[in-house]
Amino acid sequence: MYEEKLIVPRPTIVDRQFTKPLLCGPGPCDIWPSVAEALSKPVLSPLCDELFDVMDDIRAGLQYLFQTKSKLVLAISGSGHSGMETVISNIVGPNETILICCRGIWDDRALEMSKRYGIKTKVHRILFNNTFSLTLIEGIVKILRPKALFITHGDSSTGSVQKLEGLGKLCHKYGALLLVDTVVSLASEPFFMDEWGVDGVYSSTQKGLSGPAGISPIAFSERAQEVIKKRNFKPPFYFDIELLAAQWNCFGNTRQYHHTLSPPLLWALRSCLKEVINETLPKVWARHAETTAHFHKRIEQLSLELLIPKPEDRLVTVTTVVLPKGYDYMEFVKYMRNKHNILIFPGLGPTVGKALRIGIMGVNSTIQVADAIADAMADTLIALKKSSL
Amino acid sequence: MYEEKLIVPRPTIVDRQFTKPLLCGPGPCDIWPSVAEALSKPVLSPLCDELFDVMDDIRAGLQYLFQTKSKLVLAISGSGHSGMETVISNIVGPNETILICCRGIWDDRALEMSKRYGIKTKVHRILFNNTFSLTLIEGIVKILRPKALFITHGDSSTGSVQKLEGLGKLCHKYGALLLVDTVVSLASEPFFMDEWGVDGVYSSTQKGLSGPAGISPIAFSERAQEVIKKRNFKPPFYFDIELLAAQWNCFGNTRQYHHTLSPPLLWALRSCLKEVINETLPKVWARHAETTAHFHKRIEQLSLELLIPKPEDRLVTVTTVVLPKGYDYMEFVKYMRNKHNILIFPGLGPTVGKALRIGIMGVNSTIQVADAIADAMADTLIALKKSSL
Fold first, then answer.
1. Domains plus CATH for chain B?
2. InterPro entries, per this entry (chains A, B) (predicted)?
3. Chain A CA closest to residue B1
4. Confidence check: pLDDT of B46 > 90
5. Closest Cα of chain A to B212: distance in Å?
6. Per-residue b or e along B331-362, where b marks 16 or more CB atoms closer than 10 Å to that residue's CB
């Protein structure tokens, strides 16, 4: 009886063949075999013990990962950007001030997001291939007295890592909270939430954790919790950390339904955390450091220049490489994909036309992968020199 | 070198054995075997053709599912509640009026969300076991002249379905847009977005589509697009439909990165849509109608009462059943799980202590499943009568 009422006919969805490349962009990277398996574990119903166990496992794993004793630790049902929006919208309200330290495109995202909430935004911008001086930041915080300072730990658009040790103490001295993006640094670069005085932090699963995107680990310090309790504004419903804390039972005796969690993503994140726990954080960090040091040596042997001048500023997960004059970045990326089935990325934001972005992280952080990329780059340098120079 | 700096030791994550029950609550329901398989398909990188193809497949499938020729159709990276927040926050701004038709808990959620944006909220509330009269709604819309009217098509907290035919025309007559929740009705109850004049609609994947939660189909009419173009406010960044439309290439020639999509959820949704397309919408609707009619007959044979008095108001996916005096709803639900490994739910919101909520939808909408539930209920009625009455 309904056939004649259908104004949109059935579309045709065809299955296409393709060969997945080795994922060596700034993310997503490849996933652990255990995570691929975990994705098809049984659907869990809300408000049942099996789901609560998985949520508790995830919270325990994230406390280890962030190195925090704070209880307000959970995962947002959305991409890393939903984590960013959760951290900002729960801490800073309309007419309050946020100081955003800008060096890459993620900081500009934080700026754009903040403006939408009527937050007063102040920007401390530096050159894209640099990192921030804590002394300079202190001078600015002292004058502006913002409610919070936003900074990106690892920046995938530039390939730099920001030193955070001491920054929390500095912010707290002037009554500011410290908000940190660790999307492309967590489970790769050393990170100590409590020791560094970080008050709000979020990450993502498709980078160092080698899981699928779509679920965003997040944590707030006790200091942040006090601020949240006293705030006179409300964040969007989906991002309200108080409601989420009640769903995730962060403080005990609450299992209140807030929204329907995604079972495959919960299983996957749990599996990622098991990988890190089994290897241990110090060994995960050491593996990333060794792999990338080896890769940088290979890059130097190819007579290529790293975009980030100071070695201590170079991010362990994403390496930005400058090509010699005459090479085209898009052409280089395409050749790497077509000839070697390795996916690397061109520059983004401030690094467009200035560098390749090569990601080696998570399950891919091995000498073998680093060598495979370097070998393919060596071939590509020759091939494109012949044809275009 | 980092071992001694770890203040949080490694937690232990143990694998627990459990038997997944047949999922017959109001959702999530079980997933198609093809969807379980799709979840572990390869990770797709942003801005690559393979991802674009999957996104295009999903948009075509959703246009069929919603029965709309509108181009502004895509999936939000979040649960159904993120779809709700996207629809509301993109259409109604601070100091504008929304009229919310309240009969179950999802409408109260829409109310709570709206208030957070400084939207003026007006409520038209009816008794939970009833549905709305279009004549009554017209009287209210005529007086209030809201920017939008929010209504839930299928309500999983009460087990009722709202007639929507004619409602769009009525709203448009008074300059209002029609926003509809189809979380528990899409791909189960007939739905015609364009014909019914729906301006904003969202759904979820873990109900009639038999997929995993975490990705929310959404569509806006051309009328809604005009309103969005002229609005003088901005929704949260994560929910901004203009940015999302540019990422999903809704209007052509845009593939702008907005956030990282979740490959397993995209593959899963695509696979759900393929199931519906292969079966065809009229046959999917007929199967749900037949299964549930059979189940209702079995319920009557058990001398049990359906909570929703009018047959035409009864939702095809979720049946609310009143137990005879003396039975305890929680005890009944527990016995069904422990003895028969079938998960059904007690009442929620207005139906707490008033009804069981039994979901038969998607892959589970078969005579076999309906009979299995009814048989188990017959046994439970006897077992709990012996022990407690």
1. 22-28+281-388 (3.90.1150.10), 33-278 (3.40.640.10)
2. Aminotrans_V_dom, PyrdxlP-dep_Trfase, PyrdxlP-dep_Trfase_major, PyrdxlP-dep_Trfase_small, SP_NH2Trfase/AEP_transaminase
3. A282
4. no
5. 6
6. ebbebbbeebebbbbbbbbbbeebbbbbbbbb
Q: Do A236 and B40 touch (CB under 8 A)?
A: no
Give the residue-averaged pLDDT of B136-147: 98
Report the Cα A81 to chain-centroid distance in Å.
9
Tell me how far apart the alpha carbons of residues B71 and B222 are, in angstroms, rounded to a whole number.
8
| CB pairs < 8 Å spanning A and B | 241
- Is B22 strand, coil or helix? strand
- Percentage of chain A lying above the pLDDT 90 cut: 95
**Confidence band for A386, pLDDT divided at 50, 70 and 90:** low
Alpha-carbon gap, residue A237 to B116, rounded angstroms: 7
Alpha helices in B117-262 (DSSP H): 134-144, 167-173, 193-196, 222-230, 241-247
The span from the CA of A334 to the CA of B349, in Å, is 55
Beta strand B305-306 pairing with B318-322: antiparallel
Radius of gyration over alpha carbons of chain B, in Å? 22
- When scoring B17, B22, B32, B39 by the number of chain A Cβ atoms within 10 A, the one with the most, hence best to mutate, is B39
| Cα gap A372→A366, rounded to integer Å | 10
Which residues of B are less than 8 Å from A24 in CB distance?
Answer: none
Contact yes or no for B109 and A285 at CB 8 A = no
Contact A331, A383 (CB under 8 A): no
Whole-number Å distance between alpha carbons of A95 and A120: 6
**DSSP output for B168-198:** HHHHHHTT-EEEEE-TTTTTTS---HHHHT-
- How many Å apart are CA A161 and CA A130, to the nearest integer? 9
As a whole number of Å, the end-to-end CA separation of chain B is 67
Closest of B2, B39, B141 to residue A268, by C-alpha = B39
Q: How confident is the model at residue A3 (pLDDT cuts 50, 70, 90)?
A: confident
Cα of A351 to nearest chain B Cα, Å: 16
Contacts of B30 in chain A (CB under 8 A): 43
Give this complex's ipTM: 0.97
State percent of chain A over pLDDT 70: 99
Using CA atoms, how far apart are residues A187 and A210, in angstroms rounded to an integer?
A: 9
> What is the end-to-end Cα distance of chain A in Å, rounded?
67
Residue A387 predicted with pLDDT over 90: no
Residue B265: strand pairing partners: none
Instruction: List, in order, residues 6 or more apart from A325 with CB less than 8 Å away.
Output: none
CB A58 within 8 Å of CB A266: yes
Report pLDDT digits (tens) over A260-282.
Answer: 999 999 999 999 999 999 999 99
pLDDT at residue B386 is higher than 70? no
CB–CB of A237 and B116 under 8 A? yes
